[in-house]
Design brief:
The chain has 359 residues and is α/β, with parallel strands linked by helices. The chain is built from ten helices and twelve strands. It has a domain at 3-123 and 204-295: Rossmann fold. The chain has helices at residues 3-13, 84-91, 114-121, 141-151, 158-171, 188-200, 218-235, 246-252, 270-275, 280-287, and strands at residues 35-48, 53-68, 73-77, 99-104, 107-108, 124-127, 206-210, 238-243, 255-260, 263-269, 338-341, 344-346. It starts with a helix and ends in a 13-residue tail after the last strand. The structure holds adenosine-5'-diphosphate (ADP), iron/sulfur cluster (SF4) and magnesium ion.
Length: 359
């Protein structure tokens, strides 16, 4: 993130000094997580030859477990191709998990189908990076938002439907006079607002936000992040917020998970992970985020090579071919995700070892 970009986020939303992004509503059922993902795997078959035989699998998500509490934002960060989108899509059952469970308020949605799944889908929604691609270009804004109300029969008369659509547009900062317009008549930020209005129509408890601001201009990014935070405070919605930009993640999230080659390699409170990253990969990611104050400029850790193929992940620690401090056992022993400090987990045999950037 450039200095200018960080400044704009600060100017528009107060950056680190703004109110916490999550609210703890007293009415929430203490004890049960809103979402519990356990040992989730998504392995895509790779077909070869004339007979389309499956001999290999893309291990896009490999044994991932975590929980999200009501009204909380959990950030998910990692390089492109590490499995973030697949994880999000598997949670809302847009792709079928290969193994594991996804408990929403204690109910395993991987075991549901048909009408039971459709009814539960109301509770968990997804918004996407490309707002244009996810909106039907032949439908007006009113039809797009109204369709969500119709699918779940959430209004009982034409006038109630109309009133609700206009309320939703106002809630996301869109002038209701635009209700009869088509998606191509709007800017990227406005389209993302339409997508959010459609999502809110079904009153979700959890929204998977898959890089919702990555394709937007800097000032518009801050507006959409502010909108998501306001909606969370008003409605107690939980977010799994996916991004490759750690500065955005740090700003919006209470906790952060770092993903590499389909696995969670580090997770902790957002501020802790930025200040005291324990995994070498997280240290490298953080070193690439520019500081606002040029005096405290970080030295960037350059990782050698590219992310390996998730079809043949390296044995032992999957990060070992790129890790500046790898030792012999890293090539054979898989590091467990273990608590290295209180509420701070890292999957590294040498967690906490500080990497010195090469000069
Ligand atoms: N439908 C699919 N079939 C096969 N491989 C896929 C499919 N979707 C994603 N992948 C692969 O899974 C890996 C993770 O992809 P993705 O979840 O999109 O990562 P990210 O969102 O972190 O960029 C990539 O190697 C990608 O090519
Ligand atoms: S386990 Fe070894 S290779 Fe993996 S991150 Fe830690 S030090 Fe590096
Ligand atoms: Mg993605």
């Amino acid at each position: 993130m450039s200095l200018l970009r960080r400044f704009v986020i600060f100017a528009v939303c107060g950056y680190k000094d703004c109110a916490p992004t999550e609210l703890h509503f007293e009415s929430f059922d203490i004890g049960m997580s809103l979402l519990e993902v356990k040992d989730l795997k998504v392995h895509f078959p790779v077909k070869h030859g004339m007979f389309s035989r499956v001999r290999e699998f893309v291990k896009a998500v490999d044994d991932v477990s975590f929980a999200i509490e009501p009204g909380e934002t959990l950030g998910l960060v990692g390089e492109s191709g590490c499995g973030k989108t697949t994880l999000g899509r598997a949670i809302v059952r847009l792709v079928e998990p290969t193994a594991g469970s996804v408990l929403l308020s204690g109910e395993d949605i991987t075991q549901m189908n048909g009408s039971e799944l459709r009814a539960r889908r109301r509770k968990f929604q997804m918004i996407f990076q490309d707002p244009y691609g996810s909106l039907n270009p032949r439908m007006t804004v009113e039809q797009i938002v109204g369709e969500a109300l119709d699918i779940h029969q959430l209004t009982d008369s034409k006038s109630a439907r109309q009133k609700r659509i206009l309320e939703l547009l106002q809630d996301v900062g869109l002038d209701p006079v635009y209700a009869q317009r088509y998606p191509h008549e709007f800017s990227g930020g406005q389209r993302q607002r339409i997508g959010i209005a459609r999502t809110l129509a079904v009153e979700p408890e959890l929204i998977i936000c898959d890089e919702p601001v990555s394709a937007l201009d800097v000032s518009v990014q801050a507006q959409i992040i502010n909108l998501l935070q306001d909606l969370q405070q008003q409605r107690g919605i939980a977010y799994l917020f996916i991004a490759h930009d750690l500065a955005v993640i740090e700003h919006i999230s209470r906790r952060v998970m770092v993903m590499y080659l389909g696995k969670i390699v580090e997770t902790a409170d957002a501020k802790t992970i930025i200040r005291e990253p324990q995994h070498p990969y997280t240290q490298a990611l953080i070193s690439a985020v520019p500081e606002v104050d040029p005096e405290t400029k970080r030295q960037r850790i350059i990782l050698p090579g590219d992310v390996p193929s998730p079809i043949h992940p390296p044995p032992g620690c999957p990060f070992h071919p790129r890790c500046p401090i790898a030792e012999a056992r890293c090539q054979t022993e898989v590091p467990a995700l273990r608590e290295v400090k209180k509420d701070h987990f890292a999957a590294c045999h040498l967690a906490g070892t500080k990497i010195e950037p090469k000069r």
